[in-house]
Amino acid sequence: MAEIAIREALRQALDEEMERDERVFIMGEEVGEYEGAYKVTRGLLDKYGVPRVMDTPIAELGFTGVGVGAALTGLRPVVEWMTFNFSLLAIDQVINNAAKMRHMSGGQLKCPIVFRGPNGPAEYLSSQHSQALQSFYAHIPGLKVVAFSNPYDAKGLLKSAIRDDNPVVVLESEMTYGLTGEVPEEEYLVPIGKARVMREGADATLISFSKPVHYCMRAAQELENEGVSVEVLDLRSLRPLDEVAMYASVRKTNRAVVVDEAWPVASVGSHVAWLISKNCFDDLDAPVELVSSEDVPMPYNHTMELAVQPSSDKIVAAVKRAAYMD
Amino acid sequence: MAKTAEKNELKGYSKEFLDHLMREMLIIRRFEEKAAQMYGLKKIGGFCHLYNGQEAVAVGSVAALDLSKDYVLTAYRDHGHAIACGMDPNSVMAELFGKETGCSRGKGGSMHMFDTEKHMLGGNGIVGAQIPVATGVAFAQMYRNDGGVTLCFFGDGAIHQGAFHESLNLASVWKLPVIYIVENNHFGMGTAVKRVSAVEDFDVKAAGYNMEGSVVNGMDVLEVYEALSKAAGAVREKRVPLLLDVKTYRYKGHSMSDPAKYRTKEELESYKQQDPILVLKSRMLDAGLLEDEEFQALDEEAKKIAQQAVDFAEESSEPPVSSMYEDVLA
Predict the structure, then answer these.
(1) A8 with A140, same domain?
(2) Which residues in A lie closer than 8 A to residue B134 (C-beta atoms)?
(3) Which residues pair with A80 in a beta bridge?
(4) With contacts defined as CB-CB under 8 Å, which chain B residues touch A94?
């Protein structure tokens, strides 16, 4: 198996799907000649040309809506947002059109479109460019939302998203585009809606997605050194959630810590914590813990911005609270 | 663009075609009157935006299209466009009643009439939100090079949204086959266009996108038809977008809850003097292409169709509550 970076895994997914289906096209700011702000679309304009790769003006609402219209009439657009922070300019098209067209047309229309780009905190960017906005999208019926932590899942999930007949929001992470991992040479898909056990354990379950999965893995290693066996579950899909996998793990370990780098109020993490509290009540030996972002806008100062986010230290502390080890 | 069709110019049109325009406008007028009546009886709820007075715009425009490859998208005042696109008035009225037989299975209501077979893609309740979507439909037509044209209707209220600006720029840069139609009824809800717009004629905005723009008299169905025929021809041939400011007037309030106190009776009356149905009728009478009795018969037929739509909606079943879980995902 080849060892490749997440950015290359995503590029391969786009390339393979564009090769396979000529209805698939890419649209966004700097995706063509510039080859992507994060180089995910490198080489694709050269290979496929216009109109399969479309550079847009800086007009997120406009080109996102163009994607929706194209999807309603038979194409399969992949819309890149340079970051999810800018998706806020386009969110009307996602919530009011992409997610609603099928239902409000009584099932006549379908909207096979992918919205993708980096989401979540990066570094030294202050509050407008370092936000984890998954809760906004995961809240909406009519959308699917996926997030990955490694190259294998990145490629397999993006390919599934492009083939899905529904609008799929793909959450990437600026800080992990260069993260490497093994990806098979042969074609594969990762199904949407299935979580993945990243590490088995017996004493507590860490449930997370996207970049914080790595903090969870580090915390689990530290805890193992202290004799605590921790299972790590990467949700991979935020809508739909793999509740079966969540409950199976918690029923085995009897303790749950949810880790979500978004703000704590009305978040994916708080929802998952509630589901476990309600559905695994009899199995729990301790209240469900939530490790989230601090409830503040992101500061520029590096020490402060790190303190705002979940960390392996915070996760270790939360597991110890759940295990009554403090 | 097209000059007003004078009485003696009617000879260029077949009686069959003129009858078709008349029939469509009458059906929409009588349908909307029934809808208002049913709203009063609480058979229809929520927001209900009527099209009375604006019939010539949808009817004249759609008559210039080939809906086997062209598409129509509009805003929430969409009953007229739905009927003009050939949707069954029964399914439109049933949708207003929220019934299972409605075109959107009772999940869309007044603002969301859809018929994918007729290429009518809604029916959008967010002011201006259909403009980028229509631009995307035209993008797909460009992508497939299928010769189709997309008609994007929106009101004078929507023209101030960023979606308008972003879309027209994209359509021009990418040479998309789309005709943007400002259905300018002079009021964005209760606000006169003059109070909120730097310009009164929106054709001038086209220049900012290196597009052609024109003003069209939307009270004259033949002028609308001629303008749209010319526009659709140009768009098909040159593969470039166009902007039309079609001046029209709505007789009713913005929606059912609006008594329209922001305008004078005299203004309303002056537009009723230019009523698109009466204008076409008097031209056809003068040209000897219509008899009074014939007009009465067409009108009776339109009333019957509207009444049948109400009967159909009344007799249709409520959708099963469990159907709310259907059509969320494909």
Answers:
(1) yes
(2) 69
(3) A28, A116
(4) none
Q: Is A19 a catalytic residue?
A: no
Question: CA A180, A184, A189, A192: dihedral to nearest 10 degrees?
Answer: -30
Chain A positions in Cβ-Cβ contact with residue B103 (cut-off 8 Å): 106, 108
Is A214 one of the catalytic residues? no
Range of the domain at A297: 196-322
Question: What is the pairing mode between strands B212-217 and B114-115?
Answer: unpaired
pLDDT digits (tens, 9 = 90+) for A196-221: 999 999 999 999 999 999 999 999 99
Centre a 10 Å sphere on the Cβ of residue B102 and count the other Cβ atoms it contains: 25
Q: Which residue has the tokens 């099209």?
A: B51
Q: Which CATH number covers residue A305?
A: 3.40.50.920
CB proximity A58 to B under 8 Å: no
Q: How far apart are CA B30 and CA A149, in angstroms?
A: 59
- Give residue A165's Cα distance to chain centre: 19
Nearest residue, CB atoms, A69 vs list B105, B108, B134: B134
pLDDT of residue B229: 97
Same domain for A108 and A200?
no
Same domain, A65 and A156: yes
CATH architecture of the domain with range B7-316: 3-Layer(aba) Sandwich (3.40)
Q: Where are the domains of chain B?
A: 7-316
Q: How far is CA B323 from CA A108, B5, B96, B112, in A?
A: 14, 50, 17, 17
The amino acid at A64: T
Listed in sequence order, the residues at least 6 apart from A21 whose beta carbon sits closer than 8 Å to its beta carbon are A76, A162
Q: Which of A183, A206, A241 is the last residue of a domain?
A: A183
- Average of pLDDT values for A145-155? 98
* Residue A50 in domain: yes
User: Best interface-test mutation with B: which of A24, A72, A78, A86 has the largest number of B CBs within 10 A?
Assistant: A72
Of the partner residues B108, B129, B144, the one whose CB lies closest to the CB of residue A97: B129
Instruction: Mark which of A183, A211, A243 sits at the end of a domain.
Output: A183
Domain count across chain A: 2
pLDDT at B7 over 60: no
Interface touch A66/B104, C-beta < 8 Å = no
At A55, which CATH number? 3.40.50.970
Residues of chain B contacting A104 with CB distance shorter than 8 Å = 104, 107-108, 112, 114, 122-123
B169, A103: Cβ pair inside 8 Å? no
Does A210 fall in a domain? yes
Which among B78, B97, B170, B176 is the top mutation candidate for probing chain A, defined by the most A β-carbons within 10 Å of its own β-carbon? B170
- Does A190 fall in a domain? no
Tell me, yes or no, whether A252 and A287 share the same domain. yes
pLDDT digits (tens, 9 = 90+) for A18-42: 999 999 999 999 999 999 999 999 9
This prediction's pTM: 0.96
pLDDT of A326 reads 78
Residue B26 to residue B48: CA distance in whole angstroms: 19
pLDDT digits 0-9 by tens, B11-45: 789 999 999 999 999 999 999 999 999 999 999 99
Does any CB of chain B come closer than 8 Å to the CB of residue A92? yes
pLDDT classification of B8: cutoffs 50, 70, 90: low
Tell me if A127 sits within 8 A of A304, measured CB to CB: no
Which residue among the candidates A60, A80, A174, A261 is catalytic per the annotation?
A: A60
> Would you say residue A189 lies in a domain?
no
